[in-house]
Amino acid sequence: MWGMQPMSPAPDDAVSPGQAALARTDPRLPLHARLREVIAERVRAGEWAPDQPLPAESTLVAYYDVSLGTIRRAFRDLVEEGLLERRQGSGTFVRRASLTASLFRFFRFGTAGDGFPQSRILSIARQVGTQTITSALGLEAGSEVLHLHRLRLYEEKPVLVEDIWLPLPLFEPMERIGQDDLGDLLYPLYERTCGQIVAAATEELTVDVATAGDALLLQCARHDPVVVIDRVARSHDATPLEYRRSRGLARTFRYRIDLR
Amino acid sequence: MWGMQPMSPAPDDAVSPGQAALARTDPRLPLHARLREVIAERVRAGEWAPDQPLPAESTLVAYYDVSLGTIRRAFRDLVEEGLLERRQGSGTFVRRASLTASLFRFFRFGTAGDGFPQSRILSIARQVGTQTITSALGLEAGSEVLHLHRLRLYEEKPVLVEDIWLPLPLFEPMERIGQDDLGDLLYPLYERTCGQIVAAATEELTVDVATAGDALLLQCARHDPVVVIDRVARSHDATPLEYRRSRGLARTFRYRIDLR
DNA sequence: AAGTGGTCTAGACCACCAC
DNA sequence: TGGTGGTCTAGACCACTTG
């Protein structure tokens, strides 16, 4: 057998939709890679919510007509890729982004207290996106976006100044959110109000010097070094959902990396 | 059977040394994890040189008395961990560190030319290690170390100033190396002259402002922002081999990270 | 108790590499 | 040509989670 579907009418049964989907993938690839693609496609299409289990291994074995080991290999690769997570006894689930690895974690704060970072929204308004903004969000030049300006504090002391831009047809509900509902965590809010789930992000770190505005908000001197973090957050199907630019005092920044 | 070795005298044969080594590991762990530990230990002990293949799967199946799938799982995890690499048709090998992911890659240079970075050794001398240096290298306070001072350039323009400290009984041959032999790549030189293989490194990135010395060597103004990279390089058995501090112009620095 | 993923085994054929 | 790792299958039992 072995990765081949009989193209002539099978004597016993018609091909299942699963086998048909597999047949549409590149036949030069190993079966586990083709299976992985098919499943990843279904996940990205939003077929399963993050809290709902995917079909069990045994179900998929029958549906795609592959062996258990092949299903497990595909799942293992998808877990490694970060798309799925598996819990013994419960099932296989679409993974929410945790984003705990964010560069934001690498700002050391005055005391080693375990308090939560706080947020203060300074303004929220529509604007016409600049070239930088629209190209980061994959929009046409001149598109309207929603702009949030906020300050992040830790134990009452300012740590980061953030500008956040959201594509507008999609994030209209955010405009009508009261200041009080704009808590510390934006991503769960995006999911609740706009049904948009942040699955991944790319951050880029550079160093600049403080502008007059930075100096005022971060309580530092002009021309003090600041770290700039540019982030583009995306959904599972890679649609840009948010463009964010954060500026923080370089003096409090420290980043570690392990090389092999 | 199943992860159990008969403790009473077996009727057919004595246990092999491989089975004995497995028996010494934590029996609560899955067999593939125990096997992985045993093999990692042999690699770290230096049993195989980086260019010499490990025993074939089939050999290890007999030696450890486990199934092929279990060997493959252990190998796969060790590849993922970065200790081994596998080449179809050739064998399984101990991996040399490439360290191409080094933060040095993240300095943008004036032109997008594909020239190689160059090095210029400014000095090389013994010194008594400071507390920072000896603790980074895991030496006793007051130990002697070898200090290299060098400048890294790209297309004739200075990019990084580096201070490098090496533990001294181990790296004595480096002291007698002529300036001409101190080419661009230090790690192959360590292997050739001192038999020390760098397998991993930890880097820590912070931001500072240029000292008078930085300004002179990097051709910038005092108090310009600089990026500081602290690196500790280690052998496969985690012995610190090198402590290095690099300083480069923050203006030319850019770092990207993908979050999931 | 039922269902899920996790571990382990055994055996087959394929694709690649070096001699 | 012989040996290596890569893919695929089939089937067993274990450990965990949920009801």
Automatic annotation (TrEMBL), chains A, B:
GO terms for biological process: negative regulation of DNA-templated transcription. Residues 1-23 are annotated as: Disordered. It holds the Pfam family GntR. Gene3D superfamilies: Chorismate lyase-like, Winged helix-like DNA-binding domain superfamily/Winged helix DNA-binding domain. It comes from the Bacteria. This is GntR family transcriptional regulator. It comes from Streptomyces himastatinicus ATCC 53653. One of its GO terms (molecular function) is DNA binding. Keywords: DNA-binding, Transcription, Transcription regulation. Residues 29-97 form the HTH gntR-type domain. InterPro entries: Bact_HTH_transcr_reg, Chorismate_lyase_/UTRA_dom_sf, Tscrpt_reg_HTH_GntR, UTRA, WH-like_DNA-bd_sf, WH_DNA-bd_sf.
